[in-house]
Amino acid sequence: MNFLPLALYAAAFVVYAIHFAKRQPSVGRTATTLLLLGVLVHTFVIGMQTMEVRHVPFSNTSAAVSSFVWMLALSYLYIEVTTDERAMGVFIVPILVGLQIIPAINPGIDSRNPVLDSPWFWVHVTTLLFAYATFALAAMLGLIYMLQFKEIKKKHLGYFYTRLPSLHVLDAMNSRAVVVGWLFLTVGVVVGIVWTAQALALSPDNSNLQAMSLQDPKVFIAFLTWSVYSFAMVARKTLGWTGRRAAWLSALGFAIVLLNFLPVSYFVTTSHTFQ
Amino acid sequence: MELRERLDFSSRDLGAAVQALALRPSADESVVLSTCNRSEIYVVCSDPARAREEVAAFLSEYHDLPQSAFTPHLFSHDNEAAARHLFRVAAGLDSLVIGEPQILGQVKDAFQAASEHHRTGPMLSKLFHWSFVVGKRVRAETALGEGAVSISFAAVALARKIFGQLNGRRVLVVGAGEISTLTAQHLRSNGVGEIAVTSRTAAHADTLAASVNGLSIAWDDLALGVSSADIVVTATGSQRPIITRAQIEAVTGRHRRDPLFIIDVAVPRDVEASVGDIEQVFLYNVDDLQSIVQENLSRRSSEVARAEAIVSEELAKFAAWLRSRGAVPTIVALRERFERIRRAELNRLDGKLAGLPPEGRARVDEVTRLIVEKLLLEPTEQLKALPDEETQVAYTEAINRLFRLRDAESLSSSDDTAAEIRRTDRRGK
Which fold has domain B2-146+420-424? Predict the structure, then answer.
């Protein structure tokens, strides 16, 4: 079921790439239409899975990745529509394609751990996934900023210079994405803490809940992520860390997020591995 | 160069020129196009040789110049060649700076001035509107007009890639030179917030400040001005750098929050090269900007072939339209011929039809008219769609002979549509 959105995202990527090279408005509109179609189909797929298992399909990593891709696509579309800048599509859409491969080839098994049967769980996972999607955008904006910065600073006004938005726009969007992501990350983490405390009172013997501490890799990396983005925001305000420094920080932050999301989830047994 | 200025129409009223030209009987329609490097007259006439003489006489009288002064630099195009020339002009292919954006507007103005004085008819209206289409297509489908091709425009384009919208950005101009003035003017028209001007000679600063609606500040406040500016343009005659890295770091600290774009158009440099190493500072000097301009120019010339292809494509369509128009006199004559026959037959049968009631007679008239229409429909379409001029001449000739149209009226298909163009060629001068 996750193949169809994957195919549409891949098609959208090809058309975004053509639009980036040729800069024809009609090609750009086709790219947006394909992406929009991909998001709609993806919405339908997630909706069907929700009906099937009778709750939002977050409880295994593949389903979570699929939801993450969906949110990232939505966030990107929002930015594209509000700024009328299509040049970033060629950088963002490949992330969608790459990540969507995971749920497409490995649908995962839906676990029904009774501990997860709580409304807190959905809030926790939704806010964190959305935060991560926003951080992905921020990181991509940061990378694009660095590309554009390099061309202007080195006075080689080449291929990217004409196609990419201005440094100011990229920096402002990066800043906004970091703030929005940080807010959702904070809400997600706070909800996680509150919910753990509540669940622990109900079932004190649960090994997962007992393992929820800063020593746990998943929890530790989440706090590390939070620290990096908090620093990025404070440094921008007080130390004047705008532009390239902010771009590096958001790239670093997202590298940590990815580390937490994929290798840690698949290969390390943590407090968040529910059997 | 001198001749170019003496034949210029743009300093005088284009409408007046068109009206003066209208007094000459040979031109049915006319448009006068004048830009900084061309003066062109587009004329529709039935006698090209005579029109050529009259346009030359007009040029001589209007500009008060003997014909011998400009005749060697005059050239003319007829028919399709004239259309091709106008299409290339509108596309920006005939400009000194290839792809420059103003030319299409100037062609539109020329047409507008002529049509306000009722000097444009079906031919020039079609031709000029077609040239607007060519101009727009070339702009949309090629990169012929892309990239700044002057130093001041290149500087403004860079500023926009750094700051996005320039609204509210603060500009400091140090020293009043030609390029710095132009750059300040372009920045102003791009909506920058405040322009401060400083110069060792306060009077120069005041003059420039007044011309760009900015304010003049004291030379001693230079460092302060740099610290509060987003864009700095320097153009002093100083032999030593007036802005150093130490100065900038002293006023803005090591981490600038916002970028600073410095455009140093002075020779020798006004700004120490190491200033460009500061993280958020972008330093461009006149050579950097010049090489951007060169790159843009060569990129534009690589687009020429694509633009010429569009011109040729549209020209082919226009030529087809011209030919379809060339068939019009034959079609009109043919229709008149058929109509005469129909009337003659109806008159001949008048006695026999007299017995019919009025409705019946009206019906006969209607039916015969419809038969003639239907008979002529297909030949008319075919004549309009002939593929080239040679075929058209042959077909027209054949129809003239078959229906003995030439007896009825003399017609000449090509003269009617000849567009005559004269242009003073200034490239040699």
Answer: Beta Polymerase; domain 2 (3.30.460)
Q: What is the DSSP letter of A238?
A: I
- ipTM for the whole predicted complex goes beyond 0.85: no
Paired tokens of A23: 């800069």
pTM of the model: 0.73
Check B160 against A166: CB less than 8 A apart: yes
Tens digit of each residue's pLDDT (9 = 90 or more) over B38-71: 888 898 888 888 888 888 888 888 888 888 888 8
Question: Which residues of chain B does A242 touch, with a Cβ-Cβ cutoff of 8 Å?
Answer: 257-258, 280
Nearest chain B residue to A236 by CA: give it. Answer: B257
Hey, do B2-146+420-424 and B151-287 end up sharing a CATH topology, with the first three levels equal? no
Distance CA A49, CA A178 (A): 31
Of A189, A193, A182, A275, the closest CA to residue A232 belongs to A182
For domain B151-287, give the fold: Rossmann fold (3.40.50)
- Give me the residue spans of the domains in chain A: 1-112, 114-275
Whether A166 sits inside 8 A of B258 (CB atoms) is: no
CB of B284 within 8 Å of a chain A CB? The answer is yes
Cα–Cα dist B408/B420, whole Å: 29
- Give A98-109 as a DSSP string: HHHHHHHH----
- Point out the residues of B that are catalytic: 36
Structure tokens at A92: 């963002």
Domain range annotation of chain B: 2-146+420-424, 151-287, 328-410
* CB count in 10 Å sphere of residue A112: 12
Do B161 and A243 lie within an 8 Å CB cutoff? Answer: no
Q: Looking at the complex, does the CB of residue B255 fall below 8 Å from at least one CB of chain A?
A: yes
Closest Cα to residue B179, out of B285, B296, B300, B272? B285
